[in-house]
Amino acid sequence: MTAITAADRAAFREEGFVVIPGAIDDRHLAMGRRTAAAMLMAEPPVPGHVGPYFLWPRFAAPPDAGQLPMRDDPTGHASNGDHGLLRFYRQTGLGELAADLLQPERPPEQPGFAQLATTIPPSPHRPGGPHVDGISPPLPDGTPATFSLLVGAWLSDHSESNSGNLWVWPGTHLRFGAYLARHGADALSKLYPEPYPPVELGDPVQMTGPAGSVLFAHYLLAHNIGGYDGPPDAPMRQVVYYRLNAAGHRARWRTAVTDPLGEFRQS
Questions:
Q1: Phi and psi (nearest 5°) for 176?
Q2: What distance, in Å, lies between the first and last C-alpha atoms of the chain?
Q3: Model's pTM, two decimal places?
Q4: Is 6-258 CATH 2.60.120.620?
Q5: CB 138 within 8 A of CB 90
Q6: Where are the domains of the chain?
């Protein structure tokens, strides 16, 4: 099984993300693709649609899991404790890999939902800037839907740029954390309608790599979806995203966003 190395942890702490090639073997990659194909057959995009298209299956939380209360599912579907994307998460060992980035006493909780993110060409979109997840709408208690790690399992090849790749702004998790340390964690809720705080962004980087790679990104990392310059008959890009909480994250979310490396291992 692929392992997270000390160099991976160092890169994650400094840049706010790391891509692990070959984390998903061919057998499990085929499983994920079959699940995605069945979901898209059941809920296809409208004819002629180009650009991003998302599905949001929800999972039933196990008893006493301490899960983040699940937000409304845009598809309107009931929770499913045996969804194919939850089996995919478990059988690929994504939780175990994520645990290698988190503090040993704070393993990831089971995700409450997934996002099947697809991009259909041609889509000439270029991000005007980044965003942070979870500030609109807030959770029922009015707090932002923060989490610890964004985990992206690449079902399709991402070797070429401008092919539906995710864009990230390296190091912004640290600058965002410093901003919240100065202004208070509740400044996160006050950002809306702005998508990201007024911090130095630097230059964006497009995430590239082969199918079967897995992206781990910090919650505070500036990111956005990019366009897809391929011809209309090019295959859609497919990624399954999971938003993971380190154990107990919701009880200490204010500390987590003002000390952005506090939930993560040093080496």
A1: -65, -45
A2: 19
A3: 0.92
A4: yes
A5: no
A6: 6-258
